[in-house]
Amino acid sequence: MKAINKIYEGLSSQEKAALAFHYIITGDSAEVDKIDATVEHYHYRMPDGKYRRRLYCYMAFESMVSIEYWRLQARLNMLMAGVMAVESEDDNNELPDLIMKAVIKGEGRLLALEDALDTICSEHGLDSGAVRLFAGIEPSAPTFPESVMDTQQRDVYIKMWQDILTA
Q: How far is CA 108 from CA 77, 85, 97, 125, 140, in A?
């Protein structure tokens, strides 16, 4: 073990962090502990740790909301372009109907995301408008009347985001 510690001691902080990140992902907490034992520790004057931790959790939450929102928007835009391209070529093609079903389902997921966002923000005392602003999200209404919120997906979002915010 001392030989491994000596190897870790010769690494830069960036190299140690990269290795620790790898071992965190692979679940090897023993190696993370060995690396951490070789990292120089300092005493800092800083804001309360609980405050900083919670703030980081909120930022991770916003990032996940933003990524998911824009992923869904990109998918919907791609599907809508497909509908327009297929409809213009063949009026008897059933493909536009299949694509429209996917669009309606996608809108249901967007509605689920927005409802889950409002729910989580309300539960944690966050301003959902501020989260939307930071993520570049415009509150939206469905384009098609057939679109309904995917409640199952809403529950998945709430569970996932609760896990982040209570970490």
A: 14, 23, 17, 25, 11
Q: Which two tokens stand for residue 115?
A: 């409802």
Question: Residue 139, class by beta-carbon neighbours within 10 Å (0-12 exposed, 13-18 middle, 19+ buried)?
Answer: exposed
What are the angstrom distances between the C-alpha of 40 and each of 4, 16, 25, 46, 133? 16, 11, 22, 18, 39
- What is the residue-level pLDDT of the chain in tens, covering all 167 positions? 455 566 888 888 889 889 988 998 889 999 999 999 999 888 888 888 888 888 899 999 999 999 999 999 999 989 888 777 776 666 666 667 788 889 899 999 999 999 999 999 999 999 999 999 999 998 778 888 888 999 999 999 999 999 988 87
The DSSP code sequence of 45-71 is --S-HHHHHHHHHHHHHHHHHHHHHHH
Hey, what amino acid is at 11? Answer: L
Using a 10 angstrom Cβ sphere, with 0-12 exposed, 13-18 middle and 19 or more buried, the burial of residue 61 is buried
Helices then strands, each counted (H, E), the chain: 7, 0
